[in-house]
Amino acid sequence: MSDKVYPVPAEWAERAYINADQYRELYERSVSDPEGFWSDAGKRLEWIKPYSRAKNTSFQPGNVDIRWFEDGTLNVSANCIDRHLATRGDQVAIIWEGDNPNESETITYRQLSERVQRFANVLKKHGVKKGDRVTIYLPMIPEAAYAMLACTRIGAVHSIVFGGFSPDSLQNRIEDAESSVIITADEGLRGGKPVPLKKNADAALAKCTGDKKMLVVRRTGNPVAWTPGRDLWLHEELESVSGECPPEEIGAEDPLFVLYTSGSTGKPKGVVHTTGGYLLYASMTHQYVFDYHDGDIYWCTADVGWVTGHSYIVYGPLANGATTLMFEGVPTYPSASRFWDVVDKWKVSIFYTAPTAIRSLMGAGDDLVKRSSRSSLRLLGSVGEPINPEAWEWYYNVVGEGRCPIVDTWWQTETGGIMISPLPGATDLKPGSGTKPFFGVQPALVDDKGQLLEGEAQGNLVILDSWPGQSRTIYKDHDRFEKTYFSAYPGMYFSGDGCRRDADGYYWITGRVDDVINVSGHRMGTAEVESALVSHPKVAEAAVVGYPHDLKGQGIYCYITLIIGENGDDGLKKDLVAHVRREIGPIASPDLIQFSPGLPKTRSGKIMRRILRKIAEDDFGNLGDTSTLADPAVVDELITNRQNKRGAA
Ligand code: WTA
């Protein structure tokens, strides 16, 4: 925690859309008159049929039902493209910066329009209709944005799977979404190395049932296996269709996309976002949080495989007619100056990244930053995990040279857009705090019994009423939606995060309080990693917890009990790491594996993760109550093992 305060600079208070007084006024109206506030705000979109009412939502147990602008109709691609053509057809919509610094492309709104319409016609040609799901497994190339927008053009629902997921993870997501069309590329390219996307997609489809088509973008041109009749080159298909595809009329509450994300239990769940409220919220938060003005060059370094890429590379910026930069590569290739070189190359003015990247570049040394100019930068952003004050100060002083406010934005896949964040012209900054809620967002803290906490307090972060960007359901499982988010504290949306509120009413996210961990800003369920581990023939039982990791924020700590007669050695550890990478993907690689003859369990057989977390954190003095353990000796053994290993390391 840091007690420093950075007041809003005078020029920001003057030129930003929202200053402190306007924030107070608008926020007050947004919560006292949500209907009026959002009815007005909804006008920022272009509707085919206007809505007659903004809000119709209920968080009541057994009847969670969230609808916004429900009788309105619109088309997302028309909002992100067509309506800009008259005024900014020749303005660059997307700047694409390749993995290789010599490869780049700029795409104007007019070009985007042509390419998206043609792409949409290819989908139509292969039978994709309104409401059908399309799985997208692409690298960070412009075709990813074309594919998303092409789906929205015809009302198809996209499900993007991050390229770092394994064939098995991809297969599960294709099957759950029941997609019959999969869009991928021959290969991706990251840090100079190819990523075998088509090969992974082939392996995934080999295990899927039903008729599928695979549309393949030629990215690297290296040879790939081909299944005639199923596989289609996108560039060939594009030649066979017309360049005109009028936008479908879509209901505000029709689904826009499904995005799978990890929870505390079971398989990843398909978070569903709908059309009107989501787009409005993404667009409005993008404009005000980043204070986006015409002429800004805006760069969010996320991948479109995550929600940040959906809302803040594609939908928010394009709905606002912005210029958005899309980066294919990694922050450290060809050198750890890459981010800053790209900032200079394209004169980026707004830069939005994750604490894990900031920490790793901070570790690479100031010289790598200082050899760039960065004079174009005026605002910095952070997302994905709590940012530690040291990293914040470095980002502020070294990257931003003390002249760029930092917006530390707290939100989630389920929230659709930014929920708690400074507005740069309105909010004094405190390093490490997400500060204050966005318009219409009513955060609150509750204790474990669900009692609301007032004033300065620490507790579980809940949101008291609906906002337009909120997810509406879990795909095909509304019951799980209600149970996951609305049953812990009935009548409130529970975020799964812990949080502190200080005397100034500033919010400080402390991290997840459930069995979700956040590794390099990637969200992961410990249950998923456990289930991958126990599927290994030598593993009897596994318990996975997060532990503090200098660069990643949290690392993956695995306690493993082997089946009788098996020996835990370094060879088996390597084998287990490879196994998890195969099952889930490289992003789930275990950082530490500890073999143990037993795990701490209650007498009813429940693993006491609280104790395992403390041991992983080396916090042996705070194990809490161990009297309910079936066999307390297990804990001593785990601690001795952990200490021995640290001694050896
Ligand atoms: C964490 C990413 C602290 C949090 C947009 C949340 C953060 C989870 C912040 C959602 C932040 C995200 N400060 N923690 N600024 N932003 N988180 O769904 O634990 O991938 O619940 O969405 O990331 O991760 P998700």
UniProtKB/TrEMBL annotation:
Membership in a protein family: Belongs to the ATP-dependent AMP-binding enzyme family.
Protein residues bound to ATP: 384-386, 408-413, 497, 512, 523
Protein task: Catalyzes the conversion of acetate into acetyl-CoA (AcCoA), an essential intermediate at the junction of anabolic and catabolic pathways. AcsA undergoes a two-step reaction. In the first half reaction, AcsA combines acetate with ATP to form acetyl-adenylate (AcAMP) intermediate. In the second half reaction, it can then transfer the acetyl group from AcAMP to the sulfhydryl group of CoA, forming the product AcCoA.
Domain Acetyl-coenzyme A synthetase N-terminal, first and last residues per copy: 23-80
Lineage start: Bacteria, Pseudomonadati, Pseudomonadota, Alphaproteobacteria, Hyphomicrobiales
GO term, biological process aspect, one: acetyl-CoA biosynthetic process from acetate
Domain of life from the UniProt record: Bacteria
PROSITE patterns: AMP_BINDING
Binding site for Mg(2+): 534, 536, 539
GO molecular function: acetate-CoA ligase activity; AMP binding; ATP binding; metal ion binding
CDD domains registered for this protein in UniProt: ACS (cd05966)
N6-acetyllysine: residues bearing it: 606
Domain AMP-dependent synthetase/ligase: 82-463
Listed Gene3D superfamilies: 3.30.300.30, N-terminal domain of ligase-like
SUPFAM superfamilies the UniProt entry points to: Acetyl-CoA synthetase-like
Protein name from the UniProt record: Acetyl-coenzyme A synthetase
Cofactor(s) this protein cannot do without: Mg(2+)
Record note on modification: Acetylated. Deacetylation by the SIR2-homolog deacetylase activates the enzyme.
Organism field: Hyphomicrobium denitrificans (strain ATCC 51888 / DSM 1869 / NCIMB 11706 / TK 0415)
